[in-house]
Amino acid sequence: MAHAHRVVVIGSGFAGLFATRRLRHAPVDITVIDRTTHHLFQPLLYQVATGILSEGDVAPAIRDVLRRQDNARVLLGEVFDIDLEARTVTSRMLDDQTTVSYDTLIVATGAAQSYFGHDEFARHAPGLKSIDDALEVRGRIFGAFEMAELETDPGRREAWLTFALVGAGPTGVEMAGQIAELSRQSLRGRYTNIDTTSARILLLDGAPRILPAFDERLSKRVADHLRGMGVEIHTGATVVDVDDDSVEIQHQSGDRSRVATKTKVWTAGVQASSLGRLLAEKTGAELTKSGQVKVLPDCTLPGHPEVFVVGDLMSLNSLPGLAEVAIQSGLHAAAVIKRRLAGDLTRDATQERFRYIDLGTLAAISRYYAVGQRGRAQVWGLLGWLIWLAVHLVFLTGFKNRLLALVSWIVTFFGRTRYERTITLRQVTARRALEGSDGQTDGRRTPCCQARNSTTFAVPRALRLAA
Ligand SMILES: Cc1cc2nc3c(=O)[nH]c(=O)nc-3n(C[C@H](O)[C@H](O)[C@H](O)COP(=O)(O)OP(=O)(O)OC[C@H]3O[C@@H](n4cnc5c(N)ncnc54)[C@H](O)[C@@H]3O)c2cc1C
């Protein structure tokens, strides 16, 4: 008996999920493979890192999201091989290795943080790409205030109260705004020995202005707004070294300076998933500098019409790495698969071209202040923030997640507090533990997992280990 057309989707991010859902009523058997168990709404990771949302709010289980889709199954595994001749995908999880056959393959594995050849910076300056990253950053930020409270040396205390955001794109700018609100409002008066409002927040970027993807006028508005909140903006300032206690900055003049800071977050640069390199090695496909696969206008791999590369991993017409590009390219791949299965071969091949509709971009800087642009139209301030709120409520996956996020936003924006402040020793030291250099992350000695709205006393020890 002939089997149904087998579609394998690698990655349950925006591109993979939207492609899968669009194939819901198609005569296909879909296998979604991801190395995590969730669909992650990356644009709100910064709110997990700064105590507004819980990790569950932005990362529903992919099995739950697809529970009503009978033609889709979910596999946990990290894909490490794609055999384009045999049409199989092989993944592993712990000691288990799984090989799955496909008739059509959708590769949607996104991108990771790039440290521009300095991966050693990652242990001192985590990025913000995963739930692990967000919880580690949360641990470092809230832990820094705890350590500052204990510190008696003024210089070291200042270093604990200095936060450096490397990269002034939307994520860096949003993080700067949130840490400013935290220190000036949410944590104000919570400590005995420190004045949290004296915290220094540095936003560092080698580019001449912040938010380079936005119009210059919006970028200036945001810079003025952030300065008003107490953020120090240093443009033309390239971070050339990072260690436990400081960052070294190279200024446009060529001069270098070092700033003492215990808490660094890296939001500059992306590197496409390594499956891009794998596909390029096997097919000779071209890659961009950041490792994206140059695809044909219909989002397929050159020479392989049965393989789609979509989302952040795809390079086409210089489209930016945005959720909306990922969603639309995933939907496009699904639409082409459906047309092919329907035997709709009379269409002109140009109809298979992916056409991106720009719906605009938004960045929320602080409560009641966001900026956005679509084409030449621009919004900022309260109106921008209301649009930001509506868009994120619509796009968050799942009714429960929307509801929980809305409640958390009401509490945070009207109550000026942060309820998701739980941090644990393991979160803060995880990166070291993974590197095998920290033998002390023994859970039995970890007084972790406090209730909502609490800080944990594991932090001082954790940060000593991390520092
Ligand atoms: C902090 C942050 C803020 C952002 N803010 C915005 C914003 O405000 N607006 C906007 O439009 N965009 C924003 N973006 C960009 C947007 O999130 C991405 O463009 C989008 O997530 C890309 O979707 P994707 O499906 O291509 O990849 P992803 O969403 O990254 O999904 C890739 C999936 O593949 C899985 N995977 C990777 N490698 C493997 C493997 N080898 N085997 C199995 N699974 C694998 C991953 O676990 C992941 O689930 C932001 C991104 C970040 C990191």
Query: Structurally, how many domains make up the residues?
Result: 2
- What portion of residues belong to β-strands? 15-25%
Number of strands: 23
For the terminal residues, how far apart are their CA atoms? Answer: 62 Å
Mean pLDDT: 90
Task: Provide the spatial order of strands within the biggest beta sheet.
Answer: 3-2-1-7-19-18
Largest sheet: 6 strands, mixed
CATH architecture term of the largest domain: 3-Layer(bba) Sandwich
Summed up, the helix count is 14
Silhouette = globular
Query: What name is given to the CATH topology of the largest domain?
Result: FAD/NAD(P)-binding domain
What is the rounded Rg? 23 Å
Class from helix and strand fractions: alpha/beta
CATH hierarchy, class of the largest domain: Alpha Beta
Unreliable stretches (pLDDT < 50, length at least 5) are: 436-467
Helix content: 25-40%
Compounds present? flavin-adenine dinucleotide
